[in-house]
Amino acid sequence: MKHILCLCSCMALLLLSAVVNGQYHKDASCGKSRSYKEYLNESAESKAQKQKILSDFLKEAAQFMEQKKDPNSSVFKSGENNNYIIPVVFHNIYGDENGPEYITLTQAEKAIDRLNQDFSGVTANVNGSHPDLLINPDCPDIADASNSVDTYCTAPLSTSTVDSDPTSEITPANISFKLAEKDPFGNPTNGITRTQDAISYASAGNGTPLREVIQWPRNQYLNIYIVDESNGSSSGIAFYPDESHVDSPTNIDDPESLPPDDYVRYRSDGVAMPYWSFLSAKDFSSNAKFASTITHEVGHWLGLRHTWGEYDSGDPCTYDDFDFLANINSSDFNDPAGFNALLSSFNDTPICGQHGIHSDVCEVRSESSCGVDYYYDNFMDYSPCHRTFSRGQVDYMECVLNSKLSERGSIQGNLPNALYYDPSEGYLPTPRVVFHSETFDEDLCNSGSIRNEIPIKLKNATFNSIFPINSVLPSTYYTMSIPAASSITNLTPEVQITGANTAVLRLKGTWQAANIEDIEGI
To answer: What order of strands is seen across the sheet that includes strand 477-479?
Structure first.
């Protein structure tokens, strides 16, 4: 089967001229533990380099946390509700366009909804069996399949502390996520790219080959890869920012020019998820235990470790999630006592020797680990009772977003490159066209005709607000001409209006060069 690739910029111009002028793996775990074991086997030189990276980061973090104490400080935040805003692009690497790993725009939007609900502290009880987990009394039971993600728990929740135990504290993070609205070239995008490549099946989530297929600038976007297999049977994998940091200057325009080691670290960025755990973000009636997998992996991307730590030998009750910072020499800091206090403030999760209970529903049992109850409701655990981050975890993620570490801090300054955004005014209701896909496929019979159509949507505009009132009704058709500079002939773009702000784009006719084996760049 051949493909005719339609670049978004080309078809956006055509449309604007018309309208403007799965498989369920029950016990799969996060792949990060497996990846971290590889790190433990690295050379002493490599470990020393990473320790220096963390030491430099902590000096930034200490300065930032001091600034936060000053009510008059101008600590940089941006966007709506004083949040940090992360533009997200989902790279859908699929093997078969009819396979379950081929995701839809609606599925991507639901996943973003879940991320925002989790990070804002709005999370419902997963099965009603543990009343203490019901954070918002207005939230219906998400195990009830009749309740959709669009209708449950829409009101943000303020921090609520039952007692000093962080397992009883709900800590909203001032971090929100939006699908990218501009691609790296400034063209409109729906926040999804689609690439057909067999690497989707290759369990390549923790390697550079997946990123070499496609990677948008990490100083502008969070890259999330949706594949058939991410890392064996794991539910996802993400790279810590200290793993993917390079010492070269930020805002690197040409990663391929980096030295080999830096190149690997630069490419080792983003999140990879198999389609089955990704889809759990919207499908609460099944796979509920994976519903917050995307939140768990983004937590790793922002520097968080598993609550029980990353070690698998010795006494597990002697390790904790922030022990990766324990080897930093406090004497390198101007205020060693303040530095140690900073580490203690991050490390507010109780020591636990293992992850919470694997289960398809939220089950809270009387068992404990290392003398305390399991931290079963933390997003960085494995229990399906996810509902919160700790205060220390939120502070740590915020420090990452105010640092040079893996260019995470550059994202805020680059928001206008990824979103329709004016830093002085916040989000603008900018009329624009969003494409649900960017690819037209040639008919299976190789006739040169096009067999599919592309749904499109007007954002912040309606057709009747652009055309004369009442002139545009459902099933109205508009045709236009291909630009003269294009090599396409005998194909006519056609737009069918299907609603107030929805339409369908088709290519009608037969392309005269149908016998060419590879049709690209259209």
So the answer is: 432-435, 454-459, 502-509, 491-497, 477-479
61 pLDDT above the threshold of 90:
yes
CB of 493 within 8 A of CB of 480?
Answer: yes
pLDDT score at 50? 84
For the chain, the average pLDDT equals 75
Contact 340, 67 (CB under 8 A): no
Q: Is-contact 136 153, C-beta < 8 A?
A: yes
**Which residues sit opposite 30 in a β-bridge?**
236
- Rounded-to-integer distance, Cα 130 and Cα 465, Å: 50
Q: Is the pLDDT of residue 150 over 50?
A: no
Per-residue pLDDT, 160: 33
Question: Rounded to whole angstroms, how far apart are CA atoms 70 and 72?
Answer: 5
User: The tokens 């991307």 sit on which residue?
Assistant: 301
Residue 176 · residue 117 · CB < 8 Å? no
pLDDT at site 136: 38
- Three-state secondary structure call for residue 391: helix
Residue 228 reports pLDDT greater than 80? yes
Would you call 426 helix, strand, or coil by DSSP?
strand
Q: What is the pLDDT of residue 244?
A: 92
Residue of 304, 292, 288, 343 whose CA lies nearest to 55: 343
Cβ atoms of 210 and 78 within 8 Å: the answer is no
3-class secondary-structure state, position 227: strand
As given in the structure block, the two tokens for residue 197 are: 């490549």
Distance CA 434, CA 360 (A): 37
- Encoded tokens for 346: 């991050």
Gap between the Cα atoms of 175 and 83, Å rounded: 5
- Phi-psi category of 448—alpha, beta or left, where left has phi over 0 and alpha has psi -120 to 50? left
Largest CA distance in the chain: 75
Q: Are strands 222-227 and 271-274 parallel, antiparallel or unpaired?
A: parallel
In this structure, are residues 436 and 188 in contact, taking their beta carbons and an 8 Å threshold? Answer: no
What amino acid occupies position 96? D
CA 250 to chain centre: 21
Predicted local confidence at residue 416, as pLDDT? 92
To the nearest whole percent, how much of the chain has pLDDT over 90?
A: 26
Flag whether pLDDT at 46 surpasses 90: no
pLDDT, tens digit (0-9, with 9 covering 90-100), for 71-103: 666 665 544 456 899 999 999 999 988 888 999
CB 115 within 8 Å of CB 439? no
Q: Is the dihedral of CA 211, 240, 228, 203 positive or negative?
A: positive
For 239-274, the three-class secondary structure string (H helix, E strand, C coil) is CCHHHHCCCCCCCCCCHHHCCHHHHHHHHCCCEEEE
For 324-340, give one letter per residue: b (16+ CB within 10 A) or e: bbeebeeeebeeeeebe
Give the rounded distance of the alpha carbon of 281 from its chain centre. 12
The neighbouring-strand residues paired with 179 are 88
Q: Which of 325, 91, 88 is nearest to 194 (CA)?
A: 91
**Tokens describing residue 45:** 């030189």
